[in-house]
Write a structure and sequence with these properties.
The protein is mainly α. Helices cover 64% and strands 2% of the residues.
């Protein structure tokens, strides 16, 4: 319940807090980071609500004039996260120090190749190869249906609705699988 109240209050006050964050970020040369600062502060507030719900509700319930203590708390957190070099936001998103004397346009930066392979593309290619071999095999309709059921559709033979028992289904499946493996490894029987 407290989380719902706080979430509703955040959604009502978000634009005002964002204006406040933009104002302070503009004075700290962090103009484009206002939304990030505010979202980080609100994430900390929600974490605090989960760990110390009574304190956050007390801030929400107590008023000073037309504003709640929670407003002052959030505004203070925004200001501290922008101005303090040891704040959680500044610590988390610390910029890389750069030398002002270096002209980055004149530097030769080597693009490194991405060593990761596209696994989904590899799997797709292999499945297409298996599908092609499967389609070219001259199998009975029953063998094609059994293999497709298990291999391509990922179903279990315990869900098979035909009259065949599991042993026959596995024999058919393994036979077709062996034929495909032999084709893949260029060990064709005939």
């Amino acid at each position: 319940m407290a989380k719902d109240i706080i979430n509703k209050y955040i959604s009502e006050r978000y634009d005002r807090w964002l204006d406040y964050a933009r104002y302070h970020c503009s004075h700290a040369n962090m103009v484009e980071e206002a939304i990030d600062v505010l979202n980080e502060v609100l994430a900390m507030l929600i974490e605090k609500c989960e760990s110390n719900e009574s304190h956050v509700l007390k801030l929400y319930d107590s008023k000073k004039g037309q504003y709640r203590e929670l407003d002052f708390f959030v505004l203070q957190m925004i200001k501290l996260n922008i101005q303090s070099p040891t704040s959680p936001y500044r610590h988390k998103y610390k910029s890389i120090p750069i030398d002002a004397k270096i002209d980055f346009q004149r530097m030769d930066i080597i693009d490194e190749e991405d060593p990761e392979q596209d696994r989904s593309a590899d799997i797709l290619q292999k499945m297409q190869k298996v599908r092609s071999i499967f389609d070219n095999l001259q199998l009975s309709k029953k063998a094609k249906r059994v293999f497709s059921w298990k291999f391509f559709e990922g179903n279990s033979f315990s869900e098979w609705e035909g009259p065949e028992d599991k042993k026959d289904l596995y024999d058919i499946y393994n036979g077709v699988l062996e034929l495909i493996k032999n084709k893949l490894n260029n060990r064709e029987l005939f």
